[in-house]
Amino acid sequence: MLRRRLLCASALVACLSAPATAQTTVDLWHVFNIETDMIHQAIKDYNASQDEYRIEPRVLPFVQLQTELIKAVATGDVPDLITVDNPVLVSLAAQGALEDLTDLVSESENIDPEVYVEGPWRSNVWRDQIYGVPRDANTIGVYYNKDMFREAGLDPESPPATWDELRDAAQTLAGDGVNGIAFSAIMSEEGPFQWLPFLYQAGGSLDNINSPEAVEALQFWVDLVESGSASPDVVNMRQYEAANTFMAGNAAMAISGPWELPRIEQEADFDWSLALLPVKADKNIRASALGGYNWAIPAGAENVDGAFEFIEFMSRQDVLQNGWDTGRLPPRTDITVPDPRWPEAFATFNEQLQTAIPRGPHPRWPEISKALQIAIQEALTGRKSAQDALDSAAATINPILQETPL
Amino acid sequence: MQTRRDAAILWLFLILPVGYMVAFVGYPVVYNLVMSVQDVTLGNLATWDRPFVGLGNYVELIANERFRLVVRNSVIFVTVNVVLQIAFGLAIALYFENRFPGARYMRGLFLAAWMLPPLVIGALWKWMYAADYGLINYVLESIGLSDGPIYWLSNPDIVLAAVIAANIWFGTPFIMLLLSAGIANIPRELYEAASLDGAGAIQRFRFVTLPMLKATLLAVACLATVYTMRAFDLIWALSQGGPIDASNVLPLYSYQLSFEQFRFGGGSAVATFSFVVVFIVALLYVRTIRHEKAM
What we know:
heterodimer, A: alpha/beta, D-Maltodextrin-Binding Protein, domain 2, 18 helices
């Protein structure tokens, strides 16, 4: 109010001509600091399109949003709307930190669970109640350097399609100062995000994490490192750092997602392309990781209605179609992206999304994830065999899943 | 009349700092202590009405091998940092006491490292430590000290040393500055007298500098301990405490429990451990300062 008065004093004329009705401010916290993300234009458009609500965005770094949200919950002064990394949403919901949106969704004309891709939608549902709405989806594939393929005598038009081919190609491509492949096995959510697809491709599952299939999947990563095809530094590499080594020409292949496309287009000064994640030949199971952000409303938010109206706005065709400009796939099946940038990558990632498996949803996902991170790192650093590492992980994960199954 | 007003002013001056301490130091400490004996979730975080679990969080922590590893790391991290930061800081401070041309200017430059944000320093060292294209391996390999890349940040046996080295580089300039101030306070006559008595450089250091610096050294050691106990950003940027917690320390572990895994009770219990250590060191520091004043 005081700010408004000060503004009036400094720009009396403008104020006099402004509408007299007071707008309700909807505080939105999000993590999209790239200027071209669809959210920025959409906020402007939404604010201009009506005068009941005004979206006030606050951009936070990815790792800080959760911290800031927890602080806000502790002080009881929460924002009206947030973006949540999808594996965490159910943890927040199960602890009572999010508003139940089930009724609002059932009354909504625009948001119909039927039209959403299953994985992203499912990451919002806890005990049959809906706590969020998908904003975007992503998954991972294998970026590869076609020039390096040619130099190594590999066919750049037929990238590795199976585990064996990937292993052999990585071995062939690895050389002086160049890694065959880069991926992220870091001690954070990013490690399991990248490894779990291999678990599913091997026919393994989370509720039997020390099965022979799971051990094979972990051993596959261990072999990539031990054979010198991948750097031991993968245990300390974030996904963007894996992409960095690829763009700098220090890795011939890199596992990463579509969010890197704007950067790769700008910085990779070589001929590159994108392949689906490989399959394990004897199993032939396609699987990938599901990432992305959901909209959620913190419990106790002042303007639930305004926040939900903005969620509906952000779920429209004319907004969601712009997500791909920064490598965000639409989470709905009824959205068409006219004339997509990077058309090949768009097709590949969309195909990959069909087999993307969500992490969880589980209220104690962060603890499950941590146990996986530790197992991956123990095996990759040679501290434990893949079997022993996964036995330890099972000792943590099994009791959690017995208490609350996936 | 006069004395009553004096008394009122005295009370005011007493109440202001005490009130400040209670509000901004006492409250968080008590809040943390309470949380450490409760079962805290996001759902009950905003209220005080949370299930009491007694020492459950502590018992669970002590039984956890990861916590024991983190405690071990913290002890090594703090001890090595304090000892080496003071050793290097003292050496550099004495070096600049030689008052050669440009000495003051150079000493100022040393502080640049300390003025950078720890996150920037972490990112910088992470590049230098990169195994395949980092500066450190390049130098070591070019001068023939190693014949293959050393995985500074991904080998669990090495990572703690790598993180400690980066933190020493970060912390030493400040220690050097504090010790320089201490050295400047030593009366020159003592050195002149010692020289006249035939003391060499080593003897002057041993029998003049060290005894005169004793109180300063102790105070600086306390400060350095408290500073390194809090180390967070630099490790976060360098290794996130990994691989497999091999470079994890108490504050980072506490943060991960509370803010990444929503185990607020456990996170608070870890913070209590840190607090007790820091509190003891702080008491020691206060005692040293008082002792120094008395001299």
